[in-house]
């Protein structure tokens, strides 16, 4: 198994892509820590992980709150669990789609604070624990929106683009300490978040995707497993965009 004996912390691990990653990593031998805003949702996934014979812990976490992020990693310290893998997956589309002139400071700040701020806070806490061990693996979640833009979603596009840049910068900083940092930038993936977008967009999504279909959370989890395992031992600072060919 590719992740045998490792501990993987997955923010937003209670649904969608995060859930798929939790189950895929568990199937490969990892102990799973689910940082989830909605505890009940996290517990459902944790129960599935335990059925696979792996340990699972749910920590109710709002990644927009520094104290929550610190408490998340303190929970691992108390159990003497290392942070082998961190996946910064938590996020949402705050305020829906709207033109820039209708974006309020509250919408902008909330969107950026969850996506970019949450990634920064969790990476900071994880790196503090990975450096003394001389190893670690961080996977951030960008978006194809951060590569090509998404009309009507300036805050989300900006946050995801910043996560991609953050990943590249952090990868240089921590490589001498044996820590790898890579980014997944998904395209149109069939998840709850996608359901927040207007239904009228669906035909255009498929038309502009050469493979002619939406991606699945499990397909993104496959990319995450590549980054998390020794299959990518010589890979850091990279962005892989599973997007069906819509952006190259």
Give the secondary structure arrangement, pairings included.
Elements: E1 7-11, H1 16-27, E2 31-36, H2 39-51, E3 56-60, H3 66-79, E4 85-88, H4 105-130, E5 136-141, H5 144-148, H6 154-174, E6 179-184, H7 202-207, H8 217-228, E7 239-240
Parallel strand pairs: 1-2, 1-4, 2-3, 4-5, 5-6, 6-7
Helix pairs in contact: 1-2, 1-8, 3-4, 4-6
Quick gist of this model?
With 248 residues, the chain is of the alpha/beta class. It is 44% helix and 14% strand.
Q: How would you describe the overall organization of this protein?
A:
This protein has 248 residues and is an alpha/beta fold. It has 8 helices and 7 strands; from the N terminus they run E-H-E-H-E-H-E-H-E-H-H-E-H-H-E. The protein has helices spanning 16-27, 39-51, 66-79, 105-130, 144-148, 154-174, 202-207, 217-228; strands spanning 7-11, 31-36, 56-60, 85-88, 136-141, 179-184, 239-240. It has a 7-stranded parallel sheet, with helices on both faces. Helix 1 links the parallel strand 1 and strand 2. Helix 1 runs parallel beside helix 2 (39-51), helix 1 crosses helix 8 (217-228) and helix 4 runs parallel beside helix 6 (154-174). The longest helix is centred in the middle third of the chain and has 26 residues, at 105-130. It is globular, with a radius of gyration of 17 Å. The model has no long low-confidence stretch (mean pLDDT 95).
């Amino acid at each position: 198994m590719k992740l045998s004996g490792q501990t993987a912390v997955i923010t937003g691990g209670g649904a969608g892509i995060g859930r798929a990653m939790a189950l895929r990593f568990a199937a490969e031998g990892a102990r799973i820590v689910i940082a989830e805003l909605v505890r009940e949702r996290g517990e459902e996934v944790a129960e599935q992980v335990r059925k696979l014979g792996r340990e699972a812990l749910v920590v109710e976490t709002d990644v927009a709150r520094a104290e929550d992020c610190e408490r998340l990693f303190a929970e691992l310290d108390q159990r003497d669990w290392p942070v082998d893998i961190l996946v910064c997956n938590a996020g949402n589309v705050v305020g829906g789609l709207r033109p820039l002139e209708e974006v309020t400071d509250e919408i902008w700040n909330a969107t950026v604070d969850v996506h970019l701020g949450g990634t920064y806070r969790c990476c900071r806490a994880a790196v503090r624990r990975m450096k003394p061990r001389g190893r670690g693996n961080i996977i951030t979640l960008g978006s194809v929106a951060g590569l090509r833009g998404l009309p009507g979603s300036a805050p989300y596009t900006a946050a995801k683009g910043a996560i991609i840049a953050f990943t590249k910068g952090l990868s240089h900083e921590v490589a001498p300490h044996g820590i790898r940092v890579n980014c997944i930038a998904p395209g149109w993936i069939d998840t709850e978040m996608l359901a927040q977008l207007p239904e009228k967009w669906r035909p255009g999504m498929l038309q502009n995707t050469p493979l002619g279909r939406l991606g699945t959370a499990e397909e993104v989890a496959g990319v995450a497993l590549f980054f998390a395992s020794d299959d990518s031992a010589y890979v850091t600072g990279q962005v892989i965009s599973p997007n069906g060919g819509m952006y190259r």
